[in-house]
């Protein structure tokens, strides 16, 4: 399964094609539903003002966006067909609510409820048939077939990576440890590499060697390359297929010679404008929820303590700022003045605090940090200065995550569970470096859409 780069971010081509195919299905289902409803009331010819083609396109765009928000275009979706169908139902319901809101705001659009109901029913049946067909007849269609060439230790590191969208077809050893245990088939053959890759239907070859000089069959690899097979060295594999910059493999020369880190003034200005507009809109929409949360916290504290919590965090270019959150812990959570990581089932968290953490309501006041300019909607999560100092000593690249504004959500929050240890923080750094290197407005929008999945399904919450 090939990957294509869209505005610096790697995406799986078959999943993009799936999104396109489902967009066509959504449009066709609405078009059929429209005419079915029109014929059922014997209303005669469809007037041009009804514009079913235009409405079909609108319906398709809205439903595909919600399908993406439910994580249905991710190669590593865990739940299988049953879980996918639950997400499809949610996507269709939320898409219908969105279209109903559009119809209310623009009453001149003939988005009739009966037509929309038929479109949702037809769409569910069509998506069920399409995804069910892939699930039962081509379950590996969306997986990228990869052959690893090199040493056993680095090969095992590649295989152990959380890469559910990949089918490792085998390991071709180039060193003397060919008999060492490996969790994928070890290939022993005298067959030329291009013929082997063609026989195994390989999409990419990963070179897992600490030093490639003088050890690689260059002519055979070149033959594979010109035949359309991707040749990836280790760091490029992790960046492209996993969405991380692997710290163990990172070197200054790789960063210098690789592309990325394009933070143009125009894109930053657009990002800032987007932050201001979205913060204002969401601030108005979520004001009632924030009011209820504040009242619940105030009641739980017997009307004695503040509902807001301010804490110093490190922002862009290493500058400190005060982040604002709803208080979710007891007042004496750090009475001894010693900073601690939040942990799962932390006994410092209050009953109300546990709920607002799970639903991310505790983060809502950070909208004011965004308006002020200390934060953005998307970026690495801001960390406390005590932890930043400690982690910067652990790894020289930790400060690189401060090259952009911290965010309310981010790539690490989508891809990695809630971290509460130094090791977790360094694992998240691999995702943050990927974001800083491959930043674009497109990636920001993708993260925001998929954040909906995080909130609705509670991914990464304590």
Can you describe what's shown?
- The protein is of the alpha/beta class and 462 residues long.
- It folds into 3 domains: 135 residues, no CATH class; 99 residues, 3-Layer(aba) Sandwich (Rossmann fold), CATH 3.40.50.1980; 193 residues, no CATH class.
- 51% of the residues lie in helices and 11% in strands.
- The chain has 17 helices and 10 strands.
- Strands 4-3-5-6 form a 4-stranded parallel sheet, with helices on both faces. Strands 1-2 form a two-stranded antiparallel ribbon.
- α1 packs across α2 and α11 packs antiparallel against α12.
- The longest helix has 28 residues.
- The two termini are 34 Å apart.
- This is TIGR03013 family PEP-CTERM/XrtA system glycosyltransferase.
- GO terms for molecular function: undecaprenyl-phosphate glucose phosphotransferase activity.
- Keywords: Membrane, Transferase, Transmembrane, Transmembrane helix.
Number of domains: 3
Number of strands: 10
Poorly predicted segments:
none
**Shape estimate:** globular
Beta content comes to 5-15%
Radius of gyration: 25 Å
How far apart, in Å, are the first and last alpha carbons? Answer: 34 Å
How many DSSP H or I helices?
A: 17
**Fraction of helical residues:** 40-55%
| Biggest sheet: strand arrangement | 4-3-5-6
Mean pLDDT: 83
Q: What is the element string, with H for helices and E for strands? A: EEHHHHEHEHEHEHHHHEEHHEHEHHH
The major sheet is characterized as: 4 strands, parallel
What is the SS-derived class?
alpha/beta
GO molecular function: undecaprenyl-phosphate glucose phosphotransferase activity
Membrane topology: Multi-pass membrane protein
Subcellular location: Membrane
Domain Bacterial sugar transferase: 271-456
